[in-house]
Prior knowledge:
The protein is of the alpha+beta class. It has a single domain (38-153), classed as Roll (10 Kd Chaperonin, Protein Cpn10, Chain O). 17% of the residues lie in helices and 22% in strands. The protein is built from 3 helices and 6 strands, in the order ααβαβββββ. The longest helix is centred in the first third of the chain and has 13 residues, at 22-34. It is elongated and about 85 Å long. The mean pLDDT is 79.
Amino acid sequence: MSKETLSTSEPKKTESPKHINALEEKYKEEAKQESHVKRLDQDNIKEVEDELPNPVGYRILVLPFTPKEKTKGGILFSQEQLDKARIATTCGYVIKMGDLAYKDKDKYNEPWCKKGDWVIFARYAGSRLPIEGGEVRLLNDDEILGTISDPESILHYI
């Protein structure tokens, strides 16, 4: 036997062409287009806070809590499910307060909330203002029902 047949030479590596999936390309293109529209939450609201309306009088500007898009186990919620949860949410993050909020000494001894607090309000309270990346609500100061430290502690999915 010849030495060539006994040797263990490595087989030639040939690269197979990559399969391009049309849906994959479409999703990548949509992700690029939607990358500028970020979901607003308490962490990134500071970037657009100046562009939001200033509440006047006794009104308070609140960013409703936005649930996470994925569970701890990795299950993704549909967009319809997330929209229902956003509409039905009863807690939010105080962004701005009007100059007369909690100034009525006959009604309030001290303010019920301050800028940066998580508050609870009625489901249909306030006026909804759609903005890029979500919505904000304008609430009267007496529509605040309470404050909480963690909005996920009272969150329930529809």
